[in-house]
Amino acid sequence: LISFPVIGLVSYLALGMLPSLATLPMLLGFYFVRGVHIPILHQYVNTVVESDIRATVLSVKNLVQKLLYALLGPLIGVVADGGSLQAALLFSAGLYGVLSLLVLINMARHRML
């Protein structure tokens, strides 16, 4: 689980710092994390959460995820419009890193790692 935030953060940083052709392999890391985290997270929720509230937990997770996209997407767009695509990708890396760190700290606090 800890490797996913690291892979995502490194991918975002590389996309923001390297020339565009050199970043094509980094897109694999980014899409790997996006594709693999869903079944792993759902399996974890199915294991930990009682069946009578499981659907609610998964719905709230999806709602929070969509809310984050709705709030952060326009903010990243403003950074891209005001600066550059590279600036927006580096800003995204910072957001991803901070949010991942908060999740990992919370998981460690609850002994989930």
Low-pLDDT runs of 5+ residues are: none
List the quaternary state of the chains.
single chain
Supply Rg: 16 Å
Proportion of residues in helical segments: over 70%
**Beta strand %:** under 5%
Q: Tell me the total number of β-strands.
A: 0
Number of helix segments? 4
Mean pLDDT: 85
Structural class given helices, strands, pairing?
A: mainly alpha
Categorize the overall geometry: globular
Beginning-to-end CA distance, first to last residue: 8 Å
Name the helix and strand elements from N-terminus to C-terminus, one letter apiece. Answer: HHHH
- Major sheet characteristics: none
Descriptive account of the structure:
The protein is mostly helical. The protein is built from 4 helices and no strands. Helix 1 packs antiparallel against helix 4. The model has no long low-confidence stretch (mean pLDDT 85).
Note the main attributes of this structure:
113 residues; mainly alpha; globular
Q: What is the element layout, followed by pairings?
A:
Layout: H1 3-17, H2 24-48, H3 54-82, H4 85-109
Helix pairs in contact: 1-2, 1-4, 3-4
